[in-house]
Design goal:
Blueprint (H helix, E strand, L loop, with lengths): L31 H5 L4 H8 L9 H18 L3 E9 L2 E9 L2 E10 L13 H17 L7 E9 L7 E9 L9
Length: about 180
């Protein structure tokens, strides 16, 4: 057994919440995958990912983008610890862990990529608010000697196309904003 990395964060596992369909089907809804069996799940995944729906509002697109980003991170080896952590000063979309440490992930979902990229939309004020929320999350768990970084997941949701995700590791630094490190 390899030695344990002392900087790797190990938190007690919380009970898993039941899976919710991001396309609007409520809990208890029988999906195609539950009807035909788990052996067909990869095929259903491909069917579900075929097209992004046409969104009526930006918050609806944002929620869908966060669900897509969480699945994307899980497929790339991240363990999702928490989603939508809120304090009055800001919100962290996804808090995840991978082999490099803790990642505070900001999800930027857009319905088009014509104007600014989602990465360019995380300005200094947004970084300051993310740092305050990250600091509150770490303080609440009394985690001082943990490696962490700020990642961004860009999700482009063109109507009728497969959502495109791009992970930007260590996209913004929290060093200049933290007071207690």
């Amino acid at each position: 057994m390899p030695p344990r990395d002392p900087h790797r964060l190990i938190l007690p596992q919380r009970p898993r919440r039941p899976w919710r369909n991001p396309w609007g089907a409520g809990e208890g809804t029988v999906t195609l995958a539950t009807r035909v069996g788990a052996w067909l799940a990869p095929l259903v995944w491909a069917i579900d990912r075929r097209r992004a729906p046409n969104f009526a509002s930006a918050p609806e697109a944002g929620r869908y983008g966060e669900a897509v980003a969480a699945r994307f991170l899980r497929r790339h080896g991240y363990l999702i610890l928490e989603m939508n952590f809120r304090i009055p000063e800001g919100e962290l979309d996804i808090i995840a862990e991978d082999r490099d440490g803790l990642a505070f992930v900001e999800v930027k979902a857009l319905r088009t990529d014509k104007w600014l990229s989602p990465y360019e939309r995380v300005n200094r004020e947004k970084q300051r608010r993310l740092a305050k929320a990250a600091e509150a999350w770490l303080r609440g768990r009394n985690l001082r000697k943990v490696r962490f970084r700020g990642d961004i997941v860009e999700v482009i949701l063109k109507s009728g196309d497969v959502p495109q995700c791009r992970l930007l590791k260590d996209a913004h630094r929290f060093d200049e904003y933290f007071r207690w490190w």
